[in-house]
Amino acid sequence: MPPMPREPILAQPTDTFALPAGWAAEPKWDGFRALFAHDQEQTLLRSRHGTDLTPGFPELVAAAAALPYGVLLDGEVIIWADGRLAFEYLTRRLNRRAATAARLAEQHPAHFVAFDLLHQADADLTARPYAERRAALEALFTDHQLGAPWTLCPMTTDEATAREWLSWSAVGIEGAVFKRLQQSYLPGKRAGGWRKYRVRESTEAIVGAVTGSLHRPGTLLLGRLDATGRLRYVGRTTQLTAALARDVAVQLARAGPEHSWTGRTFSAGWRTNDVLDVTLVVPELVAEVDADVALDSAGRWRHPLRLLRPRSDLDPADVPRFGQGNEPTAG
Fold it and tell me: Nearest-CA neighbor of 261 among 242, 283, 239, 240?
């Protein structure tokens, strides 16, 4: 088995979209970051956190027959469904029995988007520059005529081309990753490694509940009204600053039993079974938030939102309807 690093190279977030000379850009995918190793004895798919994903993706294991022995790929496992990248279908593959995983693979097959080649035959490529590893990866796809579910990640050194990828946010492209052409592969490193830029937009949602207390809210649970006027959950903010918590607290009132979320529980995150301790509030306060473009099929944001400011000048009816993503109000 090719030597697999305990953790792949990581990307440092950046708020600046820039592709200077000597750097390349690739699309940032909404999927599972993973390492894929294949040799005569074993095929292994492992997440960036070390979780063995192999049992959940039998279609990728079967497709490994098209690869030469001794290959170690870094990439993203994705599922394409209903015209977009569907992250929620990936999470359904975790901790499944073999028969269930096989059935799910038939319904919504996964693809592996390869963006780095770390080992080939008997050669460790991690010390070589990214440009050489990329050339070897392209040759791998060409020489072995790799097709679905193997996908070669697009790459460019042209900033205008990279900026065009940002317009693909509606189908699940979250932004771009920047890589220095002469950089070696640095397992587990973030600082001094790759850079990632996420597309973010400001939009509005309605405060439906808080963690913490009414007098000192910690985070806000946000919703939007559906066509029937029911408040539907869309996401949660990051921890509020003290100043924003004070501004929000004076505009909150405890909700009665008629609240749409009465009796509902909220998960603390998709990797945990922990449930949030929340207080429901009268859904009247509008919040302007900074959101990325990663949405699930139900129209919820997958990543935490950053509160920009409460919008007491807006009415809940002014907020985009449930399912409208990052579309801002006109006001």
Answer: 283
Domain residue spans of the chain? 11-198, 200-318
- CA end-to-end span of the chain: 58
Is the confidence at residue 272, as pLDDT, over 70? no
Residue burial 272-292, b: 16+ Cβ < 10 Å; e: rest: eeeebebebbebebbbbbebb
What's 200-318's CATH class?
mainly beta
* Annotation: CATH topology of 11-198: D-amino Acid Aminotransferase; Chain A, domain 1 (3.30.470)
Distances (CA, A) of 216 to 12, 55, 118, 222, 266: 32, 44, 49, 17, 19
**Mean confidence (pLDDT) of the chain:** 90
Distance CA 206, CA 317 (A): 10
Instruction: Report DSSP state, residue 167.
Output: G
Q: What is the pTM of this model?
A: 0.72
Per the structure block, which two tokens stand in for 198? 């996420």
| E strands, 89-153, in order | 110-120, 123-124, 150-152
Longest alpha-carbon distance in the chain:
66
Cα dihedral across residues 321, 324, 328, 329: positive or negative: negative
Enclosing H/E stretch for 279: strand 278-280
Catalytic residue positions? 28
Cα torsion 296, 257, 275, 285: sign: positive
Q: What is the pLDDT of residues 49-65, one digit of tens each?
A: 888 999 999 999 999 99
Helix (H) or strand (E) holding 87: helix 87-91
Residue 95 burial (10 A CB sphere; 0-12, 13-18, 19+): exposed
- Say if residue 149 is preceded by a cis peptide, omega within 30 of 0: yes
Q: Is 114 helix (H, G, I), strand (E, B) or coil?
A: strand
Which pLDDT value is given to residue 138?
98
